[in-house]
């Protein structure tokens, strides 16, 4: 998704530690906002943000060259806990909210842990896409890195 077609303008992105470790918690901090010109085009933005989703697609090419086959998981883009992860959203005043807001900046904070005992060693690609229910892309990003697993 071209950056100019994404509704949420990312100001800052940090992943710590980097590269992402196996068997240790890592954190992602994303800061951004929906700029005023883009807000005008959306009639029900507040309601749409309350129903936004986050899709995470994981794919890999294992150490022996075998492709893994992509798997996608979709969760609500809300302050929540799912599996081994936690996702929190803060508004422009630093108050934790249930979902993204249309006024000012938003912070999205996550923590996650990749258990090595269930992971095959290889080059892993993670694609993250946040969308409104009509398919409008809030933001999209991709990360590719080598991960050492125990399988």
CATH topology: Immunoglobulin-like
What is the tally of helical segments? 2
Shape: elongated
Round the Cα radius of gyration to an integer and report it.
16 Å
Topology pattern, helix = H, strand = E: EEHHEEEEEEEE
Q: Which terms would index this structure?
A:
Immunoglobulin-like; four-stranded antiparallel β-sheet; 151 residues; mainly beta; six-stranded antiparallel β-sheet
How would you characterize this protein structure?
There is one protein chain. The protein is mainly beta. The chain has one domain: Immunoglobulin-like (Sandwich), CATH 2.60.40. 7% of the residues lie in helices and 49% in strands. The chain has helices at residues 36-39, 45-50, and strands spanning 9-16, 25-33, 53-62, 71-76, 80-82, 85-90, 96-97, 105-113, 122-131, 137-147. The strands form two sheets. Strands 1, 2, 5, 6, 7 and 8 form a six-stranded antiparallel sheet that branches. The mean pLDDT is 93.
């Amino acid at each position: 998704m071209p950056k100019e077609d994404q509704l949420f303008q990312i100001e800052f992105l940090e992943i710590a530690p980097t590269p992402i470790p196996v068997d240790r918690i890592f954190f992602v901090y994303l800061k951004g906002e929906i700029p005023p010109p883009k807000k005008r085009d959306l009639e029900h933005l507040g309601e749409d943000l309350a129903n936004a989703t986050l899709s995470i697609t994981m794919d890999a090419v294992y150490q022996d060259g075998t492709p893994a086959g992509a798997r996608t998981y979709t969760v609500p883009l809300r302050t929540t806990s799912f599996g081994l992860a936690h996702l929190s959203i803060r508004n422009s005043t630093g108050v934790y909210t249930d979902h993204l807001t249309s006024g000012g900046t938003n912070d999205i904070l996550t923590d996650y842990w990749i258990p090595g005992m269930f992971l095959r060693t290889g080059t892993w690609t993670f694609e993250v896409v946040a969308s409104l229910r009509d398919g409008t892309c809030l933001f999209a990003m991709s990360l590719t890195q080598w991960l050492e697993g125990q399988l």
